[in-house]
Design brief:
285 residues; alpha/beta; Rossmann fold; 2 domains; 13 helices; 42% helix; globular; binds adenosine-5'-triphosphate; BCA_ABC_TP_C; P-loop_NTPase; transport; ABC_transporter-like_CS
């Protein structure tokens, strides 16, 4: 472990010391604080979170069985979906009425899986529209030539620095579709960083990544914290959660059922039941 990583982990641990392992636990310095967030699709309540706070400068994992509402909750917080009710503050500003691009501008940025349209663009073009796609990828894809002309040199410079950091610089003129699964994940993260976020939200950053690249991705995620960012990520792989998360929030059937350190969560009977319950249900279908 590098000195920088040790310092980052220790600072995150100190910030969370004494926070009770219970849903909605207050944090000393919450960058995000959400209350009464509910999203129903017809009769199905996908998200019903009473209260949650995310401590600034930490890596928080959001876990829960399939269909727990994790992705829907991400979509709500980042303005890509609208709640049935609820409110939240991000970095001291009311954010629940913001549109997705306003949320991104305020500093809360999520990664997106590379869609078909993006895989047909070069890696560098993907970076240059990295900021823009938070307002709707399809709309912006058509504007790339104009962006190219109008772009500031600073954007290009930043893109190249990030591609270097994520070891994708040699691929900059390649189609994104030519990248391996792991390299795509790196590109998704690098694109989100074009916006210089304060908080980055990663949806299953390890899905489809081979073991060789997993370690490198983990290091990149820790670096985000060491650079002062707050990280919230959805993940199913508990080994990974143990390795990098300072804190874990658990959702089941739309609700936040508990929070705590990775060790506390692994030992929590409610968490074990939630996962076993989900498997049990699946087995019955
Ligand atoms: N647009 C939608 N219309 C109707 N139902 C939806 C919609 N989006 C999500 N749902 C439902 O809401 C519930 C929560 O889904 P969500 O994708 O948020 O769960 P998740 O925890 O991210 O699951 P996974 O781990 O499988 O990705 C599911 O029952 C899902 O079928």
């Amino acid at each position: 472990m590098s000195d920088k990583e040790k310092a980052g982990k220790a600072a995150a641990g100190a910030a969370l010391a004494g926070v009770p392992a219970e849903p909605g636990a207050p944090k000393a310095d919450a960058i995000l604080s959400a209350t009464g967030v509910r999203r129903a699709f017809g009769g199905l309540v996908a998200v019903d979170v009473e209260h949650v706070e995310i401590q600034r400068g930490t890596i928080t994992a959001l876990i829960g069985p399939n269909g727990a509402g994790k992705t829907t909750f991400f979509n709500l917080l980042t303005g890509f979906d609208r709640p049935s009710r609820g409110s939240w503050d991000f970095d001291g500003r009311r954010a629940d009425r913001m549109r997705s691009f306003q949320v991104a501008r305020a500093g809360m940025v999520r990664t997106f899986q590379l869609t078909k349209a993006l895989t047909r663009m070069s890696v560098l073009d993907n970076m240059l529209i990295g900021a823009a796609d938070q307002v709707g990828e399809r709309m912006w894809a058509g504007l790339v030539p104009r962006l190219w002309r109008g772009q500031e040199a600073a954007n290009r410079e930043r893109a190249l620095v990030l591609l270097e950091r994520f070891k994708l610089i040699d691929k900059r003129e390649h189609y994104a579709g030519e990248l391996s699964g792991g390299q795509r994940k790196l590109l998704e993260m690098a694109r989100a960083l074009m916006l210089e976020p304060k908080m980055i939200m990663l949806d299953e950053p390890m899905a489809g990544v081979n073991p060789a690249l997993k370690q490198s991705l983990l290091e990149h995620i820790k670096d985000l914290r060491e650079d002062g960012m707050t990280v919230l990520f959805v993940e199913h792989d508990m080994d990974m959660v143990h390795e990098i998360a300072d804190w874990v929030a658990v959702m089941a059937a739309g609700q936040l059922i508990t929070e705590g350190t990775p060790d506390q969560i692994s030992a929590d009977q409610r968490v074990i039941d939630a996962y076993l319950g989900a498997h049990h249900d699946a087995a019955q279908h």
